[in-house]
Every structure is written in structure tokens, then in C-alpha cells.
């Protein structure tokens, strides 16, 4: 039901409330943050094999920004 609601596009405040309640009940935000941190570590490890450069530094900074930012 939730997947269909999200896939079809949330149209009403009631639907938003339902989705938000599901996310809260299943620690969705914490889970998403944990996944983002894991993916960030993997990406950083991949970047470590590249030579130091402005581009590499920019990508590393983007990883920090995306994972540490708050809503």
C-alpha cells in the first residue's frame, strides 16, 4: 500500500500522513542515514585510489555535505 502510494504519487495530506507514520514506525530516517553513511564510506574508499586532485577533493567534500546535512 505504501509503495503504491509513493509510486503513484502522493496527492493528499492524508497520504503524506500515512507515509510519514510508516517511515516513523520503521525508523526510516535513521535507516536511510545509516545507508547513506555506508555508501559514503564505500565511495570514499573508491576515491582513495585516485590521485590527489581538485576533482577528488570536491567529490570528497560532496560526500561530507550530503551525509552530514540536516533537513
Strand segment count: 0
Mean pLDDT: 93
Q: Helix/strand-derived class? A: mainly alpha
Radius of gyration: 17 Å
The biggest beta sheet is recorded as: none
- Helix % is over 70%
How far the N terminus sits from the C terminus, by CA atoms, comes to: 26 Å
Which series of helices and strands comes N to C?
A: HHHH
Weakly predicted, low-confidence segments: none
Beta strand %: under 5%
Tally of DSSP helical segments: 4
What is the approximate shape? Answer: elongated
Describe the structure.
With 71 residues, the protein is mainly alpha-helical. It is built from four helices and no strands. The protein has helices at 2-8, 13-25, 28-47, 54-68. α3 (28-47) packs antiparallel against α4 (54-68). The radius of gyration is 17 Å and the shape is elongated.
What attributes characterize this protein structure?
mainly alpha; elongated; 77% helix; 71 residues
Topology:
Layout: H1 2-8, H2 13-25, H3 28-47, H4 54-68
Summed up:
It contains four helices and no strands. It is mainly alpha-helical.
